[in-house]
Amino acid sequence: MNLIEKLEKIKERYERVNQQLSDPAVISNRKKMITLGKERSELEEIVQVFQNYKNVLDNLKGNKEIINANEDAELVEMAEMELEDLNTQKENLEEEIKIILLPKDPNDDKSVIIEIRAGTGGEEAKLFAGDLFRMYTRFAENKGWKIEMIDINDTGLGGIKEVVFSLDGPNVYGDLKFESGVHRVQRVPETEGSGRVHTSAAS
C-alpha cells in the first residue's frame, strides 16, 4: 500500500467516525461518544495535512501540463517559477505525514508538571526564567491546554526565581517530552545600563 492509498483509508475512517457521531444510538452512549470524539480529533490532523498534500500535487500536475503544452510563454514562465516552491511544499508535507503516521506513544496524552528555576546570572537569570514561563504558557494557551499553577516565587519585576505548574490536554507529553535540561541566553539585560552582554541560564 503506497502513501496515498494509506491516507485515503484514513480519510475513509475519518468520514465513518463522523457519521457514527451523528447516529442517535451513539449520541446516547456517552462512553462511545468520548472514544469516537478522541479518534476523530486524532484523525482530523492527518486528513487536513492529506488535503493540503493533494492540493499541492494537483497544482504540480497543473503547472507541468502548462509547461509541456508550451502555448503561452508568460504562463510557462510563471509555472516554472512556482515549481520549485511547490516541490519544496511537497517534500515538507511528505515529511510531516511520515511523522504523524508514526505509532503513537501511549504516554503522549498524559499531563505534565513543568519546573523552571533561575540559574546563574543574577537578576537577568530570573528575567530569563520569567520569559521561559511566559513562552510555555502562551504555547499551552495556543494548544488549548489547561494550565494549573502549583507554586511560583517571582521578583515582582517580571522575573521568576522558581515556578512549578501543570499542563493537561491532548498530546501534552508528546509535544513536551524532549523539553529538559539547562537553557542559556546571551543578551543585553533590561537592567544593564552600559550595554554589556550577559550570559544567563535557567533549568
Structural description of this entry:
By secondary structure, the protein is α+β, with helices and mostly antiparallel strands. It has 6 helices and 5 strands; from the N terminus they run ααααβαββαββ. A 3-stranded antiparallel sheet has the order 1-3-2. Strands 4-5 form a two-stranded antiparallel sheet. The chain folds into 2 domains: about 5-100, Methane Monooxygenase Hydroxylase, Chain G, domain 1 (Up-down Bundle); about 110-200, Alpha-Beta Plaits (2-Layer Sandwich), CATH 3.30.70.
Mean pLDDT: 87
Q: Total number of helical segments?
A: 6
Number of strands: 5
Under the CATH scheme, which class of the largest domain? Mainly Alpha
- Domain count: the total is 2
**Order of helical and strand elements:** HHHHEHEEHEE
Radius of gyration: 24 Å
| Structural class label | alpha+beta
CATH overall fold name of the largest domain:
Methane Monooxygenase Hydroxylase, Chain G, domain 1
Topology:
Elements (H helix, E strand, L loop, with lengths): L2 H19 L2 H4 L2 H40 L3 H28 L11 E6 L4 H22 L2 E9 L5 E9 L3 H5 L6 E5 L10 E5 L1
Antiparallel strand pairs: 1-3, 2-3, 4-5
Key traits:
alpha+beta, 58% helix, 6 helices, Methane Monooxygenase Hydroxylase, Chain G, domain 1, Alpha-Beta Plaits, 203 residues, 2 domains, 17% strand, two-stranded antiparallel ribbon, three-stranded antiparallel β-sheet
Give a quick summary of the entry.
The chain is α+β, with helices and mostly antiparallel strands.
